[in-house]
Amino acid sequence: MATDVIVVGAGPTGLMLACELALAGVRPLVVERRPEPQRDSRALTLHPRSVELLDMRGLAPRFLAAGTTVPGWHFAGLRTRLDFAALDSRHAYTLFIAQARTEALLAERAGELGVEILRGHETVDVRQDSDGVEVDVRASHGRRTLRAAYAVGCDGGRSLVRTAAGIGFPGTDETLTGVLGDFATVDRDDPGLKRAQAKGVLVAPLEDGFTRLVYLDPARMRVPSGEPVTLEEFRTSLTGLCGSDCGVDGPRWLSRFGNASRLAERYRAGRILLAGDAAHIHFPAAGQGLNTGLQDAANLGWRLAAEISGWAPPGLLDGYDAERRPVGAAVVENTEVQTLLAELTLVPQYERPAAALRTMLDEFLRTPEINRNLAARVSALGTAYPARRPDADPLEGRRMPDIGLTVAGSSATRVYELTGRGRFVLLKLTEGDEALPPAVEAGWGGRVEAVTVTGWEHHPELAGVSEVLVRPDGHVAWTSRTGESSERTRALTAWAGTPGAAARD
Ligand SMILES: Cc1cc2nc3c(=O)[nH]c(=O)nc-3n(C[C@H](O)[C@H](O)[C@H](O)COP(=O)(O)OP(=O)(O)OC[C@H]3O[C@@H](n4cnc5c(N)ncnc54)[C@H](O)[C@@H]3O)c2cc1C
Question: Which of 130, 136, 146, 221 is the most buried (most CB within 10 A)?
Answer without folding.
Answer: 221
